[in-house]
Amino acid sequence: MIGLIGYGRFGRLTVRHMSPEFKVVVYTRAADKDADINDAGASLVSLEEACAQRIVILSVPISAMPATLERIAPLLAPKTIVADVCSVKEKPAQWMQSLLPEHVEILATHPMFGPDSAAKSPAGHKIVLCPVRIAAHRYQRIKQWLAEKQMVVIETTPTLHDQKIAVTLSLTHFIGRGLAKFGAPPIDIDTEGYRRLLHILGVVNNDTWQLFEDMHRFNPYAREKRKAFMDAMAAIDDRLREIESE
């Protein structure tokens, strides 16, 4: 019933949480994943078989979306629901609308959790839904299932999503990568605030550089938020330099 395309850390989490209730098949170009996919509760299949499922979930890097969509477009049956899980929404939604056939339904999503935060259960975690092109009754069934899993559903547009996520995710990861570059270490004489900074560092270090680069490259609002943050930091530094020179 569910065809998953891509099998990274989030793909494995998806299989683990969905396979108890649904038949899940996986297509991936990664080598030697068969045993791990079976262990998670799914089976490794061809791209054609993955695309033949009623719901197809794309769990690939943002930068890989256009090429993936071009490959799967001729393999999708009418009324197949195609959903992505990218951390940006404007570009993926546009790509899906332009590259997928009109007989395919499209649901852009962003699960606001990952393998670390939702290792045991997605309950209590947020998921963003952007119904791009999907029948109302199918969309309601998906929302109902998510609610039954006690997930917090946020409905919005791809544009509003990207504007907000440019601060809550892209900027947070930017700060975390800055801490990593700085070399912020655990210190015995610390504070609660510093420990929270290290938590941010730990979270972003578990994600790939490709994800970090893609969430900035393909979010049209990330650069302006990053610049505003850097300008604010520079202004604070200038103020401190002034009092230090007195």
Describe how the helices and strands are arranged.
Blueprint: E1 2-5, H1 9-18, E2 24-27, H2 34-40, E3 43-44, H3 47-51, E4 55-58, H4 65-72, E5 81-84, H5 90-99, E6 105-111, E7 126-133, H6 136-148, E8 152-155, H7 158-182, H8 192-205, H9 209-217, H10 222-244
Parallel strand pairs: 1-2, 1-4, 2-3, 4-5, 5-6, 7-8
Antiparallel strand pairs: 6-7
Helix pairs in contact: 4-5, 7-8, 7-10
Structural class: alpha/beta
Strand content: 15-25%
For the termini, the CA-CA separation is 70 Å
The dominant shape is globular
User: If helices are DSSP runs of H or I spanning 4 or more residues, what is the number of helices?
Assistant: 10
CATH topology of the largest domain: Rossmann fold
- Overall domain count: 2
Helix content: 40-55%
Radius of gyration: 20 Å
Question: What's a concise summary of this model?
Answer:
The chain has 246 residues and is an alpha/beta fold.
Can you describe this structure?
The protein is α/β, with parallel strands linked by helices. The chain folds into 2 domains: 2-156, Rossmann fold (3-Layer(aba) Sandwich); 160-244, no CATH class. The protein is 50% helix and 15% strand. It has an 8-stranded mixed sheet, with helices on both faces. Helix 4 (65-72) packs parallel to helix 5 (90-99) and helix 7 (158-182) crosses helix 8 (192-205). The N and C termini lie far apart (70 Å). The mean pLDDT is 96.
Descriptive terms for the model:
246 residues; alpha/beta; Rossmann fold; 2 domains; 8-stranded mixed β-sheet; 8 strands; globular
